[in-house]
Amino acid sequence: MTGENADGGNADGTSEGVVRRDRFSGGPARSFLSSLEADARIFEADLEVDRAHVVMLAECEIVESDVAGKILTALDAIEVEGHENLPDGEDVHEAIETAVIEQIGPDGGKMHTARSRNDEVATCIRYRLREDVLSAIETTLALREALLEVADEHAETTMPGYTHLQPAQPITVGHWALSYENAVRRDTARLLDAYGRINQSPLGGAAFAGTTFDIDRERTADLLGFDSVLENSMDASSSRDFLLETTQALSTLATTLSGLAEDVIIFANRGFVDLSDDYSSTSSIMPQKKNPDTLELVRAVAGDAAGEVQGLTTTLKGLPRAYNRDLQRATPHAWEAVDAVREATEVAAGAVSTADWNEAELADEAGAGFSTATGVADLLAENGLPFRTAHEVVARAAEVDTDDEFEAIEAAAAEVLGEPLESYVDPAAVEAALDPAESVASRDSQGGPAPSAVRDQLESGRQALKVDRTDRDALEDRLSSAHASLRQEVGEYV
Ligand code: ARG
């Protein structure tokens, strides 16, 4: 094979598609080679990339203005016809070019001057992925908002906190909700960060080795709303690390969601939370069943997303420079991940915001399993006992099988310290430390579960949400205004 440069981007505008169809018209591997069906996802992106490229070619006097006008008119007609009516082709780029040539004749072949499908496809993927990542970010913002609302409503609701799934210390529902809000906040940040590297233009890199034409890469980047140009033409056309880091960020988000889903599934099992019917399912045989299926599916999406990361990494690993056709199979991993994770985030937000927290049940269980033990040990330590000794006293009390924890502590103190409890600490303070609500209220250190600390965290959560929302919306505005101004430029020719 002679490669893309030999039959693409010719000075006389000969159609690459036409040439290729003569020689490689399709043997048994035709459908194996083709990405046309999967390329439906980048149909609009490709038309937009074509428009920007043609406008730039005309501005740089590489293609005559009237020819540019004819090509741009044909592109509009092709958009109306839709992806499903494209002529056959190895991919959407070839099919659109063929359609342009069918409409306006050989001049249509000038569209592919000074570029290759290699920089073209890389540009289309980045173009489309920007929109998808912005809408995935939107779902993380909605989830954060839902978690903030739960935290606001339940800043004071005491609940059991667990480690190793064993009752550990009482907390508040607000504290639990904010623990996920904090994590999702970082997931938003990772996606925003990845967006910055998606939003760079490979267009003009050509097959990988640049072009003899005096093109203006900054101009096409700007027309398409990209922040900058990917400088090195070989890197521009062949690197896919932007796909990998985006899929990884999505997979990390999905992992956060899976923990959230698992918690709510367990809470539903314990009667702490009631999912709304909209986010539950039932059994086809057991009429009494109400199951948290939506959250189980959210939990499973983490596995899918991790699988996409694995597939993508394995495809990209060891690929030599520059373009290799393996890359065609890399792209769908990112689409799968972004679709699944976006939907899972949306569902998680809906399930969380419509769930009912059973405050009475939570309060009952908050002190179960002597979960206030740490607070009692802290109290003894505050009153002068070495923490290790205090721990020993409370640990002994915890071994006693009794409902009267105070009595057990008194007995353990007498045994370990050889003196009555009240000679170390006010018994009323011990009673208070044993109360789950008081125990929570006393843990008011920064970021802690006390209602006052939850209120402070709510404030920073709201502030961060506002900033991220503004940033995201500005990115979206930049895309829409690029789209509008490209429309206007096209209007000059058609
Ligand atoms: N459809 C291909 C892809 O998705 C782009 C075509 C580049 N083809 C080539 N033979 N250089 O990656």
Automatic annotation (TrEMBL):
Q: Report the residue ranges that make up the Argininosuccinate lyase C-terminal domain in this protein.
A: 370-441
- List the GO biological process terms: L-arginine biosynthetic process via ornithine
Q: Name one Pfam family in it.
A: ASL_C2
Q: Which residues form a coiled coil?
A: none
Q: Does the keyword Metal-binding apply?
A: no
Q: Which reaction does it catalyse?
A: 2-(N(omega)-L-arginino)succinate = fumarate + L-arginine
Which pathway is it part of? Answer: Amino-acid biosynthesis; L-arginine biosynthesis; L-arginine from L-ornithine and carbamoyl phosphate: step 3/3
UniProt GO cellular component terms: cytosol
**Record key words, sorted:** Amino-acid biosynthesis, Arginine biosynthesis, Cytoplasm, Lyase
Q: Which GO terms describe its molecular function?
A: argininosuccinate lyase activity
- Mark out the compositionally biased spans (Basic and acidic residues): 465-480
Q: Where is the Fumarate lyase N-terminal domain?
A: 39-307
> Where found?
Cytoplasm
Instruction: Write out the ranges of the annotated region (Disordered).
Output: 1-22, 435-494
Write down the superkingdom of origin. Archaea
Q: Give the EC number(s) listed in the UniProt record.
A: 4.3.2.1
Protein family membership = Belongs to the lyase 1 family. Argininosuccinate lyase subfamily.
Name the PANTHER family for this protein. ARGININOSUCCINATE LYASE
This chain's protein is named Argininosuccinate lyase
Q: Which organism is it from?
A: Halostagnicola larsenii XH-48
- Upper classification of the organism: Archaea, Methanobacteriati, Methanobacteriota, Stenosarchaea group, Halobacteria
